Amino acid sequence: MNPIRCISRLLVLALVPATTLAAAVFHDGTPLSARETARLALEQGPRGLVIQLDSLSADKGFALGRTPFLPTLSATAGLNAGRTLSSGSHDDLNSQTGTASLNLNWTLFRGLAGLADSRRATAEATRARTLAFIEAENLALEALQGWHALREAERGVDIARESALISRERYQQDSLRRALGAISPQALLNAELALNADRSALLGREQALRAAQATLGTLLGLPVGSVCITGDSLALSALATDDAELCIQASTQGPAAEIAMLDARIADQRSMAARGSLVPRLDLSGSLSHRDARSWYLEGGQAELGSRSATAGLSLNWDLYTGGQSSVTRQRATIAARQATLRLQDTRLELENGMRVALEAWRTLDRQRELAQARV
Q1: Does position 23 have pLDDT exceeding 60, yes or no?
Q2: How far from 311 is each of 101, 112, 283, 315, 351, CA to CA, in Å?
Q3: Which of 169, 205, 211, 362 has the least C-beta neighbours within 10 A?
Q4: What is the DSSP letter of 276?
């Protein structure tokens, strides 16, 4: 797992619970804290709205888990008209036939395949919902990073502007000294070069500020320049959880671990469904039908016939030999299940090791921050 991503998630843990936020993002005169910024990105930003629809679509997928146990019902209807040409003494024969039927089919038993399909559909829906949660988590993280980047860009502009003002004053003073002959032309040239460098740095900082405004505005669904920040401090809350618990949570409870577990579960259910071809399938079928027929001659005389029928029955189907296709399908499903289990183990180990590295990096950054504050 990328240590930088781990550090970013640790920063989320540190930033979101903080309550003393002297620096805040403003939109239309309303201050936005880091948590409020992340919330708006999820609720009104374009990506946030897409994530909401993804989550809604995933929730609809849970209904597919019930379909293997339910019957199917279909209806058919038809109307036919015909004319039989006669070469004898009778006129041509005209006929009309109308049919309507209602058909019911219910698979009562097909081994464990139905249960496996149901569990697989539920696991796939859970996986889709977890992916939507991961996207939401990443979006919230980007919003928090954008909030912090905008704050840092604003501070950088202030520092660059102050440096440019100092360089301008120094250049003006050196110009007077040069007019009095107190300094050399080279010293004045150096002051001018320093002023130009500070002006160039200010332009770069202003461009970085506009880019940070555009990035955060895109996440929030707002136009460029509609967000700005004020203030000069940010409270960071310390991590209260010990390393062992964080590593366990990362390897067993995080979204990436849950996705790997769901993939393994889906592969197991597919393997179980593939083994369902070894047992017979029992189907219950039934139908209701109605038929009306009418025939007549042009010279007179007609015949009408109506009938209704109802059928019901049980059928047993067993695929005894399919040319080896069922066997290959079962073998491939078993291999896929084993692969998913190994990937789950690999993911858990990667997450645990990544969290350990991230914790060390976090403490290094925290120590560096303390040293920076001590110098002030």
Answers
A1: no
A2: 11, 28, 14, 13, 59
A3: 169
A4: G
82 φ, ψ (degrees, to nearest 5): -145, 165
Q: 181: helix, coil or strand?
A: coil
Half-sphere exposure of 276 (CA within 13 A, CB side): 19
| Euclidean distance between CA atoms 8 and 365, whole angstroms | 12
Q: Which two tokens stand for residue 150?
A: 């905008």
Integer Cα distance of 196 and 284 in angstroms? 87
Which structural domain range is residue 5 located in?
1-18+237-280+326-376
The predicted pLDDT at position 20 comes to: 30
Where does the pLDDT of residue 84 fall: very low under 50, low under 70, confident under 90, or very high at 90 and above? Answer: low
Say if 259 falls within a structural domain.
Answer: yes
Instruction: Give the chain's length.
Output: 376
Is residue 136 pLDDT above 80, yes or no? yes
Higher pLDDT, 238 or 372: 372
- pLDDT band, very low/low/confident/very high, at 221 (cuts 50, 70, 90): confident
Those residues with Cβ within 8 angstroms of residue 83's Cβ, 6 or more apart along the chain or in another chain: 92, 93, 94, 95
pLDDT band at 19 (very low <50, low <70, confident <90, very high): very low
- Residue 370: inside a domain: yes
Total structural domains within the chain: 1
CA distances in angstroms from 153 to 16, 20, 41, 215, 315, listed in the order given: 20, 21, 20, 12, 73
Query: Per the domain annotation, does 320 fall within a domain?
Result: no
The CA distance from 2 to 309, in Å, is: 68
174: tokens are: 């050196």
Contacts of 122 (CB under 8 A, 6+ apart): 62, 65
User: Which tokens go with 294?
Assistant: 């009418």
Q: Are 23 and 148 in contact (CB under 8 A)?
A: no
Average pLDDT over every residue of 161-190: 88
The tokens for 314 are 């049980």
Q: pTM for the complete prediction?
A: 0.54
What average pLDDT does range 266-283 have in this prediction?
76
Report whether pLDDT(176) > 80.
yes
Q: Kind of pairing, strands 93-109 and 227-230?
A: unpaired
Distance from C-alpha of 138 to C-alpha of 144, rounded to nearest angstrom = 10
pLDDT of 165 reads: 92
